[in-house]
Specification:
Number of helices: 30
Helix content: over 70%
């Protein structure tokens, strides 16, 4: 072999691995010998680089376990932090306390605050005078000053002993006061309620608040001072109906005033400083009750009454955070009236308080929605739809902040899909092909569809369309047919709401090309198609699967064609789908499916002729975009196209078909659960309070 030329040697020096390896050896030979610790670190670094280089995909798959759909949201509760005392929640009923005396509430508060400030000033003046005299004596008489210094330690020990004895006496007095509170019975409650209503008596109201606190903690503390369920319900019902009115009357706030500024402006006044512990006791006890009670009627009634006092939470940020947490939990886990009442609380907090409260409410609601949409069953479907629609309703209160959160969430969905498309591992597929992922996409599709006409949501629209198409590409097989159908439904919804043309024909025609097994003539077991993202294998060989493929394809194409049935380009849009449908009609041997496909073909052809005739009559050129957009607008408003009536019949049949299928599934589930016993309320008092609450509310 001849000698290498100059260019070849230069290339070898720069690129050949053997040359580079030899150069590295020469360099390391002349380097200073490294310590053992440095060598170990270099080995670990090189091993880490090799692992990242050669097993990058494995690391990506491991990352799937750490990626969650709500991980991008960091809850900021900084504005909901506040001072919450560690007291037991009971208010003092001592005779020396400011709450005692047979006086009206307003006068009592003013007198108490005035007397307190005067007493403080007098005490400070007297102490200042005495300290001045003492300092003068020290300056005049040095021996007296030495005497004070020598006896200073002895005086300190005497003070400690007095303080210790005072603490023991106060503890004993506290225990005696809780024991003297005694059992609450119905007659005691009636007499106290009468004093509060007729005379606005402060001590009576404070005693009722202590009784209310004991009732809310019933069963969680011992001894229990509430005598029976009738007394329990009387205390709670009275406080729910009267507490808010009393608070507003004292502070001079009207019932219709729900502005947080109304409370914040009064925070430095003497009235509020005296009333604050009373309001806080009521709110804390009510929140504790919401955490303890299990009966949905009591919870709904409590939330309804607490909603009237929501403005008072402005002074207690920590309690406001608890209220949001409890309300979101009840909204997600409750049903019917309870969920609706919880939603009203969440919406009020988001609108009454600052923007950070809105973000907190939105984030907590989004996380609760994700946690409760991991599975979809016909029984839970209605509640999950309510959660979705109510969350979108909440987002509509501040669309700018909702837009930012939606973008973050959608980008997280895109990140998960991107990793799935790159790795295509089992963990990736499982995370994307799940109801949790599908429901998140469905949520933001509904949000965009509702608001895109009034707001600029084009970035969200573009990103979510890319995600949906990516999901459809990732799952092409027949077992994922329900997920692909949902992808087309999402695209149709976005296209209808935005007015943007989104091609879906290829995705729909792929459904018709699924191969059916040899046993296709046998009907399969009843299976809820709407509550699955992946079909069982045995269902692929059933006649039901073939029927579902054809019916779904016709319904999806009908929605797509109905949107563009009056457009000037409809004949061109429908050409390729008709070719595929005619071919499918020729190959299919099942007569019922042939009839469905044939009718669809006929209706589309009629609409093509209708549009062509109108198109032949126009005088404008294809470049005239404005005239092309206004084509057949009068006919569209009147609904005169042949395809319009057919589309209505298709949608009606699709709805009835789903109802029948879901009805069969739900009846099977009811038969399975017939033998199960119904749960008995944990607390017998729950039922009694419900009856009382309903009676009083009427």
């Amino acid at each position: 072999m001849g000698k290498l030329g100059k260019k070849a040697r230069k290339f070898a020096k720069k690129n050949l691995q053997s040359v580079l390896k030899r150069q590295r050896k020469v360099k390391t030979f002349f380097k200073k010998k490294a310590s053992k610790r440095d060598e170990k670190a270099q080995v670990e670094d090189s091993d880490g680089e090799r692992e990242e280089k050669y097993s990058g995909r494995n690391n990506e798959v491991e990352d799937f376990k750490d990626i969650s759909l709500d991980a991008v949201f960091d809850e900021d509760d900084s504005d909901m932090e506040g001072d919450d005392s560690d007291s037991d929640g009971y208010l003092s009923e001592d005779t020396s306390c400011s709450y005692n005396g047979e006086t009206r509430i307003e006068n009592h508060l003013e007198e108490y605050n005035g007397d307190l400030s005067v007493q403080k000033k007098q005490i400070h003046l007297e102490l200042a005078k005495k300290m001045k005299r003492l300092n003068n004596l020290k300056a005049k008489d040095p021996e007296f000053a030495k005497f004070l210094e020598s006896n200073k330690e002895h005086l300190q020990t005497l003070r400690d002993e007095e303080n210790y004895s005072d603490e023991e006496e106060s503890d004993e007095d506290g225990r005696e006061s809780t024991n003297e509170m005694g059992k609450w019975n119905s007659s005691t409650v009636d007499s106290l309620c009468k004093l509060v209503k007729e005379q606005n008596n402060v001590p009576a109201f404070v005693r009722l608040l202590n009784g209310y606190r004991a009732a809310c903690h019933y069963g969680s503390e011992s001894p229990t001072i509430v005598e029976d369920s009738h007394t329990f319900s009387k205390i709670l019902t009275f406080m729910f109906h009267e507490a808010d009115n009393i608070f507003r009357k004292i502070l001079g706030i009207s019932e219709s005033n729900d502005r947080k500024e109304a409370i914040l402006e009064l925070k430095n006044t003497s009235k509020w400083k005296t009333l604050k512990p009373i309001v806080k006791s009521y709110l804390r006890s009510t929140l504790f009750l919401l955490n303890e009670v299990t009966d949905s009627q009591i919870l709904a009634f409590t939330l309804t009454r607490l909603r009237a006092s929501i403005v008072f939470f402005a002074a207690f940020p920590l309690l406001l955070g608890r209220l949001v947490k409890i309300s979101v939990h009840l909204w997600a886990t409750g049903k019917g009236t309870l969920s609706a009442c919880s939603l009203l609380i969440i919406k009020d907090v988001a609108s009454v308080f600052n923007s950070n409260c809105f973000e907190t409410c939105m984030i907590k609601a989004y996380k609760a929605f994700i946690d409760h949409c991991k599975f979809v069953e016909p029984v839970l479907f209605k509640h999950q739809q309510f959660l979705k629609s109510s969350f979108i309703e909440l987002c509509s209160q501040d669309l700018q902040k909702a837009y930012n959160k939606a973008m973050v969430s959608i980008q997280q969905l895109a990140k998960i899909l991107q990793l799935g498309l790159r790795t295509k591992k089992k963990e990736a597929v499982k995370k994307i092909c799940s109801w949790q992922y599908a429901n998140c996409v469905d949520l933001w599709v509904a949000f965009i569809s509702l608001n895109i006409r009034d707001y600029d949501l084009q970035p969200l629209l573009y990103t979510i369309i890319q995600i949906i198409n990516g999901v459809a590409v990732l799952f092409p097989g027949p077992r994922y047919m329900p997920l692909r159908v949902k992808c087309v439904q999402w695209l149709n919804a976005l296209s209808v709401s935005s007015g943007v043309f989104i091609p879906i024909t290829s995705l729909v025609l792929d459904i018709l090309e699924y191969k059916i097994g040899k046993e296709s003539s046998k009907p399969g077991k009843d299976f809820s198609f709407s509550s699955a993202v992946k079909l069982p294998k045995h269902w692929l060989k059933s006649r039901n699967f073939q029927d579902e493929c054809v019916f779904s394809a016709i319904e999806l194409l009908a929605v797509h064609f109905a949107q563009w049935s009056y457009h000037i380009s409809f004949p061109d849009l429908a050409t390729i789908p008709l070719i595929y449908l005619r071919k499918f009609h020729e190959l299919t041997t099942i007569e019922s499916l042939r009839r469905v496909v044939k009718r669809f073909i006929d209706q589309v052809e009629q609409n093509i002729e209708f549009v062509r005739k109108k198109r032949d009559e126009v005088t404008f050129s294809p470049n005239d975009q404005q005239s092309a957009e206004s084509f057949l607008q009068l006919e569209k408003s009147g609904g005169n196209a042949p395809f319009t009536k057919y589309y209505a019949s298709v949608i009606e049949k699709a709805g009835s078909r789903n109802l029948v299928m879901n009805g069969k599934i739900s009846s099977l589930e009811q038969k399975k659960s017939k033998g199960k016993r119904q749960q008995i309320p944990k607390n017998a008092m729950d039922v009694d309070l419900t009856v009382n609450a309903e009676g009083n509310s009427h």
